[in-house]
Amino acid sequence: MTFNELDPIVRNWGLNRLASSVKAAEDANVTRLRYMFLDLDPERPTLTNATEAEHAAAMQRLETIRAELRSEGWPEPVLAGSSGSGAMALYRVDLPPSESGLIEATLKGYSPVR
């Protein structure tokens, strides 16, 4: 699944149905950036679930980030909440792929959940 608009040739790989992937889309196949996805997971050992405290810290960090983005003029996310062991939010954007650095800089502005 992708959140961004892809070159029409990529859509033909799956013939508009769910199936095993033949080939994965690459950055070069993106024709328009439509969403910025935040995925906040606490640092923990591989294949383990977050503790209740770690999950709560991720949810609190999401609320802090949402408030910061709101103060900078960002709209509310399209979707936000728990991702199981962490938190997630999906923000709508409309940028050409050449501007992906803006999303990357925004994401790098927020430290990991500790």
Provide a compact summary of the structure.
By secondary structure, the protein is α+β, with helices and mostly antiparallel strands.
Compute the number of helices: 3
The number of distinct β-strands equals 4
Helix content: 25-40%
Give the biggest sheet. 4 strands, antiparallel
Low-confidence stretches: none
Quote the average pLDDT: 87
Distance between the termini: 29 Å
Structural class: alpha+beta
Spatial shape: globular
The amount of beta strand, in percent, is 15-25%
Radius of gyration: 16 Å
What letter string, H or E per element, gives the SSE order?
EHEHEEH
Strand order of the largest sheet: 1-2-4-3
Q: What is this structure's SSE topology?
A:
Layout: E1 5-6, H1 8-11, E2 30-40, H2 52-71, E3 79-82, E4 87-95, H3 100-108
Antiparallel strand pairs: 1-2, 2-4, 3-4
Detailed description of the structure:
- The protein is α+β, with helices and mostly antiparallel strands and 114 residues long.
- The chain is 29% helix and 23% strand.
- The chain is built from three helices and four strands.
- Strands 1-2-4-3 form a four-stranded antiparallel β-sheet.
- Strand 3 (79-82) and strand 4 form a beta hairpin.
- The chain starts with a strand and ends in a 6-residue tail after the last helix.
- The model has no long low-confidence stretch (mean pLDDT 87).
Please name the defining characteristics of this protein.
about 25% strand; 3 helices; globular; alpha+beta; single chain; about 110 residues; four-stranded antiparallel beta sheet
